[in-house]
Design goal:
It is a single chain. Helix content is 67%, strand content 1%. The protein is an all-alpha fold. The protein has a domain of 83 residues: Tetratricopeptide repeat domain (Serine Threonine Protein Phosphatase 5, Tetratricopeptide repeat, Alpha Horseshoe), CATH 1.25.40. Strands 1-2 form a two-stranded antiparallel ribbon. Helix 7 packs antiparallel against helix 8. The longest helix is centred in the N-terminal third of the chain and has 18 residues. The N terminus is likely disordered.
Length: 267
């Protein structure tokens, strides 16, 4: 993955009939749309306590407190040993700390409890892609993306685009990034990768359009400024090129991109 912060879709007949596909682990991929477990009202006091602990654990995960997040997941499972979001949380923690065996075990336990949960399928799909199992990962991401109860379909589409980029397939990645920005026009990651793909395809005006949209809503990073500089250089827009160069010099002087600029290594 870049710093700018990661089985194929079943055959047509299987899709039309909403049939199941089976993963190598022997677990069926549920075809039916299901609401995320985290959206459901707890049915018991124990489940309510588990939900609260998972929510707290997710907050700690987001700030990098993996130890506390793991503790909160454990407390949630003491309250409700079958609470799927707690296994999902543990899977994410183990993924981030690169204990992949435990990550996979917990993701699968979450999915056994709630196989149609789009959040679980999205996370596990990206996990599979990041582990070099793109074919399986893309199937999971497709399940998440087409679930009508999922409020953030931009995520699985972005992840699917990134998964295809890992396979070096720009043409397959592009429609997923386009769907991602349809779902969320402010998706900076999708906008950046659409710009980068356009640049690689020598569509410099297209790259510029995506970069302008990106920089209208988010601050430049060394990577986006560097792509902007090279795009404007290709277009012959010297003033815009100089503006990006000034940003790299003043804000990102310790970046690899700034060093590339100093060395004149534009490609």
């Amino acid at each position: 993955m870049t710093r700018f912060t990661a089985k194929l879709i079943p055959a047509a007949l299987c899709l039309m009939l909403a049939a199941c596909a089976t993963t190598p682990g022997g677990m069926s991929v549920a075809p039916s749309a299901a609401r995320p477990v985290s959206d459901l009202t707890p049915l018991t006091p124990a489940e309510a306590r588990a939900k609260a602990h998972v929510e707290l654990g997710m907050a700690y995960l987001q700030v990098g407190r993996f130890d506390v997040a793991l503790d909160e997941a454990g407390v949630a499972l003491e309250d409700d040993p079958n609470y799927a979001p707690a296994f999902h949380l543990r899977g994410m923690v183990y993924m981030f700390v690169e204990d992949f065996a435990k990550a996979e075990e917990n993701f699968l336990r979450a999915l056994r409890q709630a196989p149609g949960d789009p959040e679980f399928n999205n996370t596990y799909g990206w996990y599979l892609c990041s582990r070099g199992r793109e074919v399986e990962g893309l199937e999971r991401l497709a399940l998440a993306a087409r679930n009508p109860y999922y409020r953030t379909p931009t995520r699985p589409h972005t992840n699917a685009g990134l998964c295809y980029l890992r396979k070096g397939n720009d043409s397959a990645a592009t429609p997923h990034f386009l769907r991602a920005i349809e779902a969320d026009a402010a998706n900076a990651q999708a906008l950046f990768h659409l710009a980068a793909i356009a640049y690689r395809q020598a569509d410099y005006p297209g790259a510029r359009i995506y970069l302008v949209r990106l920089h209208q809503q988010s601050e430049p990073t060394p990577e986006t400024a560097w792509l902007g500089l090279r795009t404007e250089r290709r277009l012959g827009n010297r003033d815009a090129e100089a503006s990006y160069a000034a940003q790299l010099r003043s804000r990102f002087a310790d970046s690899a991109e700034y060093q590339l600029m100093l060395q004149g290594q534009y490609e």
